[in-house]
Structure formats: structure tokens, C-alpha cells
Amino acid sequence: MTETQDSLRDCLAPAKLNLFLHITGRRPNGYHDLQTVFQLLDWGDTLHFTRRHDGRITRTTEVDGVPAEHDLTVRAAALLKQHTGTNEGVEIDIEKRLPMGAGLGGGSSDAATTLLALNRLWKLNLPREELQTLALKLGADVPFFVFGKNAFAEGVGEALEAVQLPPRHFLVVTPRVHVPTAEIFSEKSLTRDTRACTIAVFLAQQAAQNGWPDSFGQNDMQAVVAGKYAEVARVLRWFENVSSSIAPARMTGSGASVFAAFASRAEAEVVQTQLPADWRSAVTSSLDTHPLFAFAA
């Protein structure tokens, strides 16, 4: 990242993985209670911010299928401006790498990176908890990225507790399908009664397995998505024959991306070379903290 008085350049908006995802209930308002562990990655979109002194908030790049007024980065900047009453403005330039509808948190991470970056660029100095409260208005995953550490999450994803996770390398494969999260959450066949666990149980299994909970839990959405989207099922079946991964491949979030963990980046890269040519993929490594973590107290 490059920082000047009037700009922040090359800000990574990191992707996330859900190492497991349990749906434990459904609220009267339709929202779901869940439990998950979020893992940050060193791969994601890159954002650039330039201060404007006329108060305007603009996005200078086109994002396929996302008008500027609906873009979470623009909405995050407008929310922060309204909340604080600042007269500052900003130009936002997005280098989009994370596919949409993939369960990698791309839009949510972009929004959180915007909140953190503008907290610095606009010299607002808001505390992290205040930014997390604002972030929840933008989406259930946004508070996690503002929280900025790997976390055990509950509620709708906003109740967060930091967890230490071992360094790992991942091969992430994204089929060329877009899986709408709302569609999967509304499926009648989706189980919503997984027994709640505790962070203590998760950490105990992690300790028992030398720091890596290889097979903890499951993704409750995976079977539903695989049943509706043949390409996701195809990726999961392909990974069944990969013997060098630490644990069986698993879908992240509501899909469509599928990931497998490896002990080394080299092992992940070898497996990547064996993928069908038309599959999108990335080899990425774990992060302990968000690159802009220091921009909020």
C-alpha cells in the first residue's frame, strides 16, 4: 500500500473462506442464525482512494453488473460521510479480481476496506466497534472484515471472537456460475437446526489436531447448492481424487467457490496445474490480520 496526504493506493480487500458454516436457526424476520470460522486470505480486490475536496463520492472504474449507486464501496463511503458529517469526498478506483456470487466476500470486503481506508484518509479516527456497527448496515459479512482478524462468528455473522489459525495455503476453484445467497437461504430443503457448538469445542479440536481442525463441522449450504448447480457438484467430485490436501474440499459461504487446504503453496500449485482448463482458480495463503487493521483503534 502507498499512502500520501491525499491518497491511499493499492489497498488489498482480502477474500475470506468459511472453514465451516452451520445454520442453527431462523429468526422471525427471516434472518438465519449461524456459526462459522472466517479465514482471511492474501488474495482479493485492490482499491485506490483519492481525496476529493468538493465532498463528492465517485467510482472511477466500471464494475460489470454493478451500477455505481449500488456499489458497496460507494454506499460505505456515503454511510460514513453521513454518520460523521464530514465535508470530505473521495474517488474510488476498483481492480476487481474476486468473482461475484462466489462466497468469497468480495463486495463485503470492498465495503469494509472503504470504511477503514476513509477512516484514515478523512482523519476521522473512529474506533473499530463504531465502524463495525456501521458495517452491519451494509451486510452481514462486512463487520468481520472491519474486525480484521480471523474469527469465530455467531448471530448473523456479526458476533465475533478472534481465533488463532495456523498458516495454510489454499487452492480456490470457482465454477462459472453465480449463486445468489438469498436463493439458497430460502430453499425449503436447507437444514436450519444444526446443533450449536462453542468456540471452546472448536479450539479444543484444533489443539488436538496440531493446530488445524481438518474436518470440523460442515457447510450446511453445500448439499443444497451442489444439488441446484451441477458445476459446483463437479468441482467437489474432482477434488475427491486429490490426496495431497489436508482435508476434503469444502464450499465457502453460499458458494460457488470450493477450496482445499494444503501444507505448502507448492503442493497447491501442483494440483492447480491439473485442473480443467476452463475452471477459474487461485492459489492463496492465509492472513492473520486485515492489511488495513491499523486504521482503526
Q: How would you portray this structure in words?
A:
The protein is α+β, with helices and mostly antiparallel strands. It has one domain (1-297): Ribosomal Protein S5, domain 2. Helices cover 28% and strands 28% of the residues. Strands 1, 2, 3, 4, 5, 6, 7, 8, 9, 10 and 11 form an 11-stranded mixed β-sheet that branches. Helix 1 packs parallel to helix 2 (106-121) and helix 7 (222-228) packs across helix 8 (230-239).
Brief summary of the model shown:
This protein has 297 residues and is an alpha+beta fold.
Features:
single chain; 297 residues; alpha+beta; eleven-stranded mixed sheet
Assign a percent range to the helix content: 25-40%
Number of H- or I-type helical stretches: 9
- N-to-C order of helices and strands: EEEEHEHHHEEEHHHHEEHE
Parts with pLDDT < 50 across at least 5 consecutive residues: none
State the end-to-end CA separation: 19 Å
Helix-strand layout with pairing:
Blueprint: E1 2-4, E2 7-26, E3 32-52, E4 57-59, H1 72-84, E5 89-95, H2 106-121, H3 128-136, H4 142-147, E6 151-154, E7 159-162, E8 169-174, H5 181-185, H6 199-208, H7 222-228, H8 230-239, E9 250-251, E10 258-262, H9 265-272, E11 280-287
Parallel strand pairs: 4-5
Antiparallel strand pairs: 1-2, 2-3, 3-5, 3-6, 3-11, 6-7, 8-10, 8-11, 9-10
